[in-house]
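Structure in, sequence out. Go:
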């Protein structure tokens, strides 16, 4: 029972899914040009045909054939006629099939497309296979493969090539040519992978699984074949599950599951049950009677293995009902089910029911047998009529052969007479040849004597030549030895020179590195010196502020207080008030000097607050200082903030002192780990080319501080327009 069901399922079904058909219809309807439409038409028409939309399929083919016939290249017409011929064959329209195939051949001769020629031969082989002309079909398939192998790659080549290999594999399987079956099955799998069509890949895995299942059936002890079979069937199921939306039919899943369940029945009943239930579930959802019956058959076999006869009988009865629903009746399966039911009833001791099933089995067998005898009788009668016509043809052929023999006999007599005349001529020519032969013999002896002399002379020449060759070789060997010694010495000298050069280059690199290091040290010393100079200048300015400002105020206060005596009581109060005012001015001056030295706001609130405070203190009615902070996050260290503050102080003081400006803009922004600082004024301006930074203490101090911060400075100025100083300082 199990094997019969398996044989039924070797070839996959070709039912197209509705969503795939809709997709093809959409692609066909939205074709951009005639070439694209003609390229899509064969696949679309085939899908319609297998969806039982045959009139529309034939209409699509006729429409596109009329368009293809007008093309200069006959490739589209050849392919479309080939598809039409295969459809006619499936409809059992023999005359139309033959006519379409002939037209496909005619158009294949009008094209240089090897793919179109190959597809014509594929269609020819496909039709011959179904007409049971296997030898001619194989020849056509092999010719198609030759064309496909010499065709450039297109979007359809590997699929058409793969289908040809699949057909050959199936033929060789029926002929028990297992090596050729395996060869073309592997080729089919390779081509399906290249085409990247999940439906073709699924069929290829199932084909390979069946190849190894045949081998396993022949050698049941070889588990390697069984494992290969299992591997390919599982790969087929994995391909289906991965590409569910693109699969043409869900029948493919139940088909693969049934084959796997059949395989597992012999050695793993749990897995066999798992896949039989999967096949049963899918086939019931689809409503495929053959697949439902097959899955019930496997479940029944598994129940029999567990001696669960009632369950097995139930499954066999369900399988029998499904077989009855199928439009294609398989009498062998029905006989097998009846026999199994009879055997189960007998095992249960229900002999009456067993006898009833057995009688049904015998009646069915008899009807099938009688039908087969009737078919055989009809076939023999047809064969007899054919042989009788062949006998008439043979009789006519014999009469024709008899007349031909008489003509041949007359020609033989004539030829004999000519032969006698020719023999007389040959005797005369033979005598002449003998005379010539004797003359040639004498000439030959003379030639042999002359040849012997020449050979002796040649041997002497060879000996002399050999002596000269030996002397020449000795001379050449001497030269070789000299050149070898010369090249060895030269190589040693070159190696010594290379080492010396490498040593000198290494020393030069070391000296260069030392020089660079010295230059870096000098640069650091210069920078530190400049910083020290800046600090000294700052100290000098601090000393001047203390001496000129605070010192003067304190001296005046002292002088004022020294004139206050008890005798001048009327002026004491006024003098003390004035001295207190001077002390207040001294305190304010001290605060200003301290603020310039280290602003409190900078320490407490950061750079932004310090700059704004500085701008407000310096601004007056004749000078406005504007500050702008964009994306500023106060992320630089306090030491750097102080240096930036000093730079802004210096730039603002320079603008006030030298540019006579009325407006100054200070702008600070952050952007990608970079602090941008711009100080602009609308003062007198100057020519940047005439500015010697090394001689200008202010700009020199600014430049040193910028270098210390590893930043860059750019000065833009124009006379009577103003000056802009741009600084970029890294935050990190």
């Amino acid at each position: 029972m199990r094997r019969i069901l398996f044989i039924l399922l070797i070839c996959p079904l070709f039912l197209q899914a509705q969503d795939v058909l809709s997709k093809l219809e959409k692609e066909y309807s939205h074709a951009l040009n005639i070439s694209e439409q003609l390229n899509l038409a064969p696949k679309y028409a085939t899908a319609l045909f297998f969806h039982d939309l045959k009139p529309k399929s034939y209409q699509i083919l006729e429409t596109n054939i009329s368009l293809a016939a007008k093309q200069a290249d006959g490739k589209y017409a050849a392919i479309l006629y080939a598809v039409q011929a295969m459809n006619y064959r499936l409809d059992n329209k023999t005359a139309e099939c033959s006519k379409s195939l002939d037209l496909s051949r005619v158009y294949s001769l009008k094209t240089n497309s090897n793919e179109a020629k190959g597809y014509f031969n594929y269609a020819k082989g496909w039709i011959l296979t179904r007409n049971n002309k296997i030898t001619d079909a194989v020849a056509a398939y092999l010719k198609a493969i030759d064309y496909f192998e010499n065709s450039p790659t297109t979007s359809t080549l590997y699929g058409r090539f793969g289908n040809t290999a699949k057909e050959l594999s199936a033929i060789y399987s029926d002929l028990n040519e297992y090596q050729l079956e395996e060869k073309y099955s592997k080729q089919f799998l390779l081509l399906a992978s290249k085409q990247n069509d999940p439906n073709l890949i699924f069929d290829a895995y199932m084909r390979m699984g069946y190849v190894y299942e045949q081998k396993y059936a022949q050698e049941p002890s070889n588990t390697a074949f069984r494992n290969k079979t299992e591997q390919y069937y599982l790969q087929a199921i994995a391909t289906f599950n991965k590409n569910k939306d693109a699969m043409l039919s869900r029948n493919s899943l139940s088909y693969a599951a049934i084959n796997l369940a059949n395989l597992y029945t012999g050695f793993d009943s749990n897995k066999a049950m798992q896949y039989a239930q999967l096949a049963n579930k899918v086939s019931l959802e689809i409503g495929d009677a053959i697949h439902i019956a097959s899955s019930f058959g496997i479940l029944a076999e598994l129940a029999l293995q567990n001696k669960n006869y009632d369950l097995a009988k139930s499954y066999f009865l369900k399988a029998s009902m499904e077989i009855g629903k199928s439009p294609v009746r398989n009498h062998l399966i029905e006989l097998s089910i009846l026999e199994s039911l009879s055997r189960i009833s007998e095992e249960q001791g229900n002999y009456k029911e067993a006898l009833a099933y057995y009688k049904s089995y015998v009646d069915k067998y008899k009807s099938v047998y009688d039908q087969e005898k009737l078919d055989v009788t009809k076939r023999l009668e047809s064969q007899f009529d054919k042989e009788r016509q062949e006998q008439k043809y043979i009789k006519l052929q014999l009469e024709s052969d008899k007349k031909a023999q008489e003509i041949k006999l007359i020609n033989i007599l004539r030829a004999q007479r000519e032969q006698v005349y020719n023999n007389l001529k040959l005797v005369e020519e033979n005598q002449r040849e003998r005379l010539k032969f004797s003359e040639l013999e004498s000439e030959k002896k003379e030639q042999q004597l002359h040849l012997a002399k020449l050979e002796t002379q040649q041997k002497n020449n060879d000996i002399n030549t050999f002596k000269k060759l030996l002397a020449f070789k000795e001379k050449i060997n001497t030269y070789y030895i000299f050149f070898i010694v010369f090249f060895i010495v030269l190589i040693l000298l070159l190696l010594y020179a290379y080492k010396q050069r490498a040593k000198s280059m290494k020393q030069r690199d070391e000296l260069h590195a030392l020089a660079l290091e010295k230059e870096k040290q000098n640069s650091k010393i210069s920078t530190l010196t400049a910083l020290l100079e800046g600090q000294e200048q700052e100290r000098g300015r601090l000393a001047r502020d203390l001496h000129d400002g605070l010192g003067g105020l304190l001296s005046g206060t002292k002088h004022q207080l020294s004139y206050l005596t008890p005798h001048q009581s009327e002026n004491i109060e006024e003098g003390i008030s004035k001295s207190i005012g001077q002390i207040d001015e001294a305190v304010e001056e001290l605060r200003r000097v301290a603020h310039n030295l280290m602003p409190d706001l900078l320490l407490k609130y950061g750079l932004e607050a310090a700059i704004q405070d500085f701008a407000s203190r310096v601004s007056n009615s004749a000078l406005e200082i504007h500050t702008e902070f964009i994306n500023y996050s106060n992320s630089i260290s306090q030491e750097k903030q102080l240096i930036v503050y000093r730079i802004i102080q210096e730039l603002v003081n320079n603008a006030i002192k030298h540019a006579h400006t009325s407006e100054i803009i200070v702008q600070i922004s952050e952007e990608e780990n970079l602090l941008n600082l711009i100080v602009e004024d609308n003062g007198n301006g100057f020519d940047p080319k005439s500015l010697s930074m090394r001689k200008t203490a202010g700009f020199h101090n600014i430049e040193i501080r910028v270098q210390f911060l590893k930043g860059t400075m750019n000065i833009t100025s124009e006379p009577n327009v103003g000056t802009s100083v741009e600084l970029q300082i890294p935050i990190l």
